[in-house]
Amino acid sequence: MTVGTLFGQLYGDGEMAAILSDRAAIGAMLRVEVALARAQADLGAIPAAAAEAIAKAAEALDPDPADLAAAVALAGIAAQPVVAALKSAAGDAGAFAHYGATSQDVVDTALALQLEAALELLAARLDRLEALLAQKAADHADLPIPARTRHQIAAPTTLGAKIAVWHGMAVRNRQRLDQLRPRLLLVSLHGAAGTEAVLAGHGPALRASMAAALGLGVPDGPWHAARDGIAELAGWLSLVTGGLGKMGLDLVQLGQSEIAELAAGFGGGSSTMPQKQNPVAAEALVTLARLNAGDLAGMHQALVHAQERDGIALGLEWNLLPGMLERAAAALRIGCALAETLAPRPDGIAATFAADRGRMAAEAAGFLLAEAMPRAEALWIVAQALAQVAGGKAPTLADALAQLAPGRDWAKALRPENLTGAAPRQARAARPI
Predict the structure, then answer these.
(1) Is this model's pTM higher than 0.85 or not?
(2) Residues with catalytic annotation?
(3) Domain ranges, residue 417
(4) If exposure means fewest CB atoms within 10 Å of the residue's CB, which of 61, 98, 307, 410 is most exposed?
(5) Does the residue 351 lie in any domain?
(6) Environment class of residue 240 by beta-carbon count within 10 Å: exposed (0-12), middle (13-18) or buried (19+)?
(7) Coiled coil: which residue ranges (predicted)?
C-alpha cells in the first residue's frame, strides 16, 4: 500500500508493511524453494548435496528488489528473477532449483507464508480490541444514553449496550478468521498447468513434506486459478474494517459539538478555530472501511480467472490485497487506541435527556397505558401528551401524562434508567472469545 510518508501513520501500518514488503516476499519465496529442494532430496528426486547447496545459497541471498524490478516487468511475475538469482548463486546445484515447479507455485506458497504472519498480527490486535470493548461495555452497562434510529432520538439504551454492538462484530470477525485460515494458508505445488505432470508422481508427497516444513496446509487441488480463498480473505478484511468503521462513525456523531455524549482519542486541532478538536482517529476508521469496501469489488473481479492462469486477474490481486491488509492493521491499531480512551461525557448525556423533555419515553408510555385500556386509546393519549409538550403546555412528557392520565407516578416510570430494557444485560454479556 502506498500512502506516502505524510499519511503513513494515519492510514498505513508499519508492522504490516514490513510483513508485506518486497524483501519479505523475496525471503518467503526463497524459503519455498528450499523446502521444495529438501522435499525432493528426501524422495530421491534430486541429489541431497544439491538441496543443501540450494539452501546455503538461499540463506546468503539478499537481492535488492530494485535490481529485480526490470525483470519482473518483463516476466509479469516476481518469482522468475528470484529463482534466476537463486540458480546463479547455487552454482552447479542451481540446475536442481525450482525443479518441476511453476512460478505461480512459488509466489502463492510464499504469499501463504506472508499471510500467516499478517493474520497473526491482525488476530493479536483483534483480541486486544475485543478485551478493551468488553471491559468498556461492562463498565458502562447501566449508564443510560439516548439511542438513535435513522439519525433521530428513539428511546433510552445504555452506553454499554452501544459498545457491546461493536464488540459483537469484533468477536464474530475473530471467529471467522479461525474458520478461513485452513482454506487460505496452503502450499501450492501443481506445476505449469496444474497437472503436476513433471513431478513424476511425487506431487502428493512433495506437497505434504513442504507443508510440514513451512507450517502450511495441503490443498485439495491446484489453486492457481481458484482464488476463492483469497477473495474470502478480502471479504474478511472488509468486514473487519467495516465493523471498525461503524464504531468510528458512531464516535464521530456522539462526539460532535451539539451532542458531546462521548469522548475517545485525542482530537486534532484546527489551524484557525482553536475551540475545535477534530475526531481524526474516528474519521480515519470510516475512511479505511470505505477504501476496503471499494477494493473488495476489485478482489471479487479477480475471481473471474480465465483458464488455468490469468495474469489480468492476478494483477488485480497483487495490486489490491496488500492495501487491504495494511488498512485492516491500521484500523485495528486505531480502534484499540480509541477503545482504550473511550469515556462518557455525563454533562452531554444529561443535556440531551433534558432537551428531549422525556419524549423518547413515548413508546414506553404507550405500553404502560395499554395495560389498563385498549392500545389505540393509549396511543391517542400519548399523542395528546406529545402535542402538549410540543406546544409548550407541559414541560415534559411525564407532566403532560400526569394531567391526561393521572393515577401513576409518571416521572418515576419514565426515568431513562427504568426504560433501558435488556441493554444492561446485553452489555454484560460482551466477553472476549
Answers:
(1) yes
(2) 270, 309
(3) 357-421+424-428
(4) 307
(5) no
(6) buried
(7) 112-139
